[in-house]
Amino acid sequence: EGKGKKRNPLHDFKKTGELMLIKVNKTLEVKTKLLNTTEQCAKRCSRNKGLSFPCKAFAYDRVTKRCHWLSFNSLTNGVRKKQDHAFDLYEKKDYVRNCIVGKGADYKGTISVTKSGIQCQAWNSMIPHEH
Fold first, then answer.
1. Which residues does 32 contact at the CB level (< 8 Å), separation at least 6?
2. For residues 20 and 8, what is the distance between their CA atoms, to the nearest angstrom?
3. pLDDT in tens, 44-90
4. What is the full DSSP assignment across 45-105?
5. Which domains does the chain have, with CATH numbers?
6. Which is higher by pLDDT, 2 or 72?
7. Is the pLDDT of residue 101 over 70?
8. Cβ pair 75, 98 in contact under 8 A
9. Is residue 98 predicted with pLDDT exceeding 90?
10. More confident residue, 52 or 126
11. What is the predicted pLDDT for the residue at 3?
């Protein structure tokens, strides 16, 4: 089962049509390149291939066929959203979902409180509980 089938690299991304992210914070990084498909952009972002930063999202310009890899996403401070009919935004689900899968070892979201509102313990802290 599943032999011979290639996994679609877009599966790991949340798509928002007609949206681009604009960096207000100048330290945030972007790299662009001409690529024919969103699948090629997604594959490079997932592997961080040729990027000097961890890729959290990419925007694909459907008009110029240009991929914009982003070191940030829509939840990052210093970023604003802009409606743009030429772009589709693809954000890595790991960085934008607010749920924990399994034991949460790969969780990269922004939730830092429990369901009941208690602040989460820092990973590098042994207080109030040992790991």
1. 66, 67, 68, 69
2. 23
3. 999 999 999 999 999 999 999 999 999 999 989 999 999 999 999 99
4. HHHTTT-SS---EEEEETTTTEEEEES--TTSTTEEEEEEEEEEEEEEHHHH-----TT-T
5. 9-94 (3.50.4.10)
6. 72
7. no
8. no
9. no
10. 52
11. 61
Residues facing residue 70 across a β-bridge: 30, 57
| Lookup result for tokens 């001409």 | 34
Burial class (CB in 10 A: 0-12, 13-18, 19+), 120: exposed
The answer to whether 85 and 59 have CB atoms below 8 angstroms apart is no
**Got the DSSP string for 6-19?**
PPPGGGGEEEEEEE
Please report the pLDDT score of residue 4 as a whole number. Answer: 62
What H or E segment, with its residue span, contains residue 117?
none
Euclidean distance between the first and the last CA atom of the chain, given in angstroms as a whole number? 39
CA atoms within 13 A on the CB side of 41: 29
